[in-house]
Amino acid sequence: MQLETYISDLLYRYDCVTVPGLGAFLTNRVSAKVHKTTHTFYPPKKVLSFNEQLQNNDGLLANYISEVEKTPYSKAAEKISEQVKSIKSFLVEGETIKFENIGELILNADGNIVFDPSFHINYLTDSFGFSHFMSSDITREIYKDTVEAIEETAPIAFTPEKRSNNNWLKYAATAVIILGLAGLSAAFLYNNSIEDHNQLAQEKANEQLDAKVQEATFIISNPLPAATLSIKKQSGNYHIVAGAFRIEANSDKKVNQLRAKGYKARKIGANRYGLHEVVYASFETRAEAQSELYKVRREHNRDAWLLIKKLD
Q1: Number of neighbours of residue 58 by Cβ within 10 angstroms
Q2: pLDDT at residue 216 in the model
Q3: Which pTM was predicted?
Q4: Helix (H, G, I), strand (E, B) or coil at 73
Q5: Cβ contacts of residue 71 below 8 Å, gap of 6+?
Q6: For the chain, where are the alpha helices, taking DSSP H only?
Q7: CA separation for the pair 290, 92 (Å, rounded)
Q8: Which residues lie closer than 8 Å to 143 by C-beta, 6 or more apart?
């Protein structure tokens, strides 16, 4: 049973999802924010947390599992209880429990569960489709500062003159100077505007060119035939345990028995209690291991269980 999948589904619709016997996953809505240093804009989201004290069964999770898997409520509650027992046993052994798209659980020195939330998914449906983005600094008052600098370098002084028949020439000259300075300022601002426009246009053209290159399809007229290799990799951190033996010879015997039945059995070393562990197989993902575990329990050993352990 993919417990984290059901919890993740419910977190989109509810602010509290309780796992009976383990604790509750809570969500708290936070507003959009801007990072002052990186100038990154983040949309509104739900922040995840975990409360170990909330363990009473409110029926939400069991009802949802019962509905999805088309099983009775009591059966769904029993599956949750078995999963919680397995999780707690791993936590006691010092293992880290990973809930995909939710976070990680680990037991601290005081015996309390510590939760490290995941930030890969935003459970706030109002922000669906939104993602963070960065924006460059906005420089203001550039034009004003430029005009003030020009006025400081080319001051205009007006002195009283005696009225004569040539006064209109003096006024005309003054007007020409004023218009010339105004035209110079306008031309300077216009040139800056044109340069900014050209730069934006060039950046847009480069982006379009990059997109075309990335979308280009190259066709080879005489392609070489594809070579298909089937390699079974016996690795991974998810192991289906067949048993643990104090005498190593007994573990070797168990491996031979399982391999005779078609399983890819092997020994993965001794655990913290000195018992030699034998597994049916190891897998890269929890989903693959869980699927094989159901098959093993149904066809061979009802006591088989899933171990999450990173091997050296």
Answers
A1: 14
A2: 41
A3: 0.40
A4: helix
A5: 65
A6: 3-11, 60-69, 73-92, 142-153, 167-215, 248-260, 286-299
A7: 21
A8: 189, 192
Q: Please give the Cα distance from 20 to 96 (Å, whole number).
A: 19
The Cα–Cα gap between 176 and 214 comes to: 56
Phi/psi at 228 (5° precision): -105, 120
| Residue in the structure block whose two tokens are 């739900």 | 46
Handedness of CA 291, 292, 298, 304 (dihedral sign): negative
Q: DSSP secondary structure string, 93-110?
A: TTPPEEETTTEEEEE-TT
Tokens of 21: 């016997």
At residue 307, the 3 state secondary structure works out as strand
* Lowest-confidence region among 198-207, 241-250, 281-290: 198-207
Tokens for 99, please give them.
């809930």
Structural domains in the chain plus CATH codes: 3-134 (no CATH), 238-308 (3.30.70.1070)
Close Cβ partners of 247 (under 8 Å, ≥ 6 residues apart):
276
Q: Is 199 helix (H, G, I), strand (E, B) or coil?
A: helix
Band of residue 147 on the pLDDT scale cut at 50, 70, 90: low
Please state the rounded mean pLDDT for residues 152-173.
Answer: 58
Q: Are 24 and 16 in contact (CB under 8 A)?
A: yes
Distance from C-alpha of 251 to C-alpha of 266, rounded to nearest angstrom: 9
d(CA 94, CA 144): 65
Which is it for strands 305-308 and 238-245: parallel, antiparallel or unpaired?
Answer: antiparallel
Specify the DSSP class assigned to residue 279: E
Strands 33-35 vs 23-30: parallel, antiparallel or unpaired = unpaired
Task: Report whether 72 contacts 78 (CB < 8 A).
Answer: no
Four-point Cα dihedral 199, 201, 207, 213, nearest 10: -120
CA distances from 77 to 8, 73, 88 (A): 18, 6, 17
The residue with tokens 């390699």 is: 231
